[in-house]
Amino acid sequence: MIVSAGRGIGKKENVPIIAALAEALGGELGASRPVVDAGWVEHSRQIGTTGQVVSPKLYVACGISGAIQHVAGMKKSEFVVAINKDKDAPIGEASDVLVVADLMQFVPILTAKLKNNLTRRSWN
Prior knowledge:
The protein is α/β, with parallel strands linked by helices. Helices cover about 35% and strands about 20% of the residues. It contains four helices and five strands. The chain has helices spanning about 15-25, 35, 70-75, 105-124, and strands at about 1-5, 30, 60, 80-85, 95-100. It has a five-stranded parallel sheet. Helix 1 (about 15-25) links the parallel strand 1 and strand 2 (about 30). Helix 1 (about 15-25) packs parallel to helix 4. It is globular. The two termini are about 25 Å apart.
């Protein structure tokens, strides 16, 4: 599983919010080229034609617009969830599910729910 951060996360200080979701899912953090170019995430985590081509079971695109170069790097993913406030963002065309939401509000809630469910399961 890969959870990728795009320019839509707003600033470097928001990367840990996306990384926490990746951790809650037992996955890895990825990033779009603008995020890497801005120095928010190291190049080794870049997904796209100038980064890594990936094919995870689950790919979660957070605040990623859906540039052709990025989509080329993740299009072999088994299942794609995009979280974007723009319902018309091109990433929606490459996604199985498009969550139209403010990701800085949605992602922490999703992460907390996932962690809570995992904690409860470990006790049962």
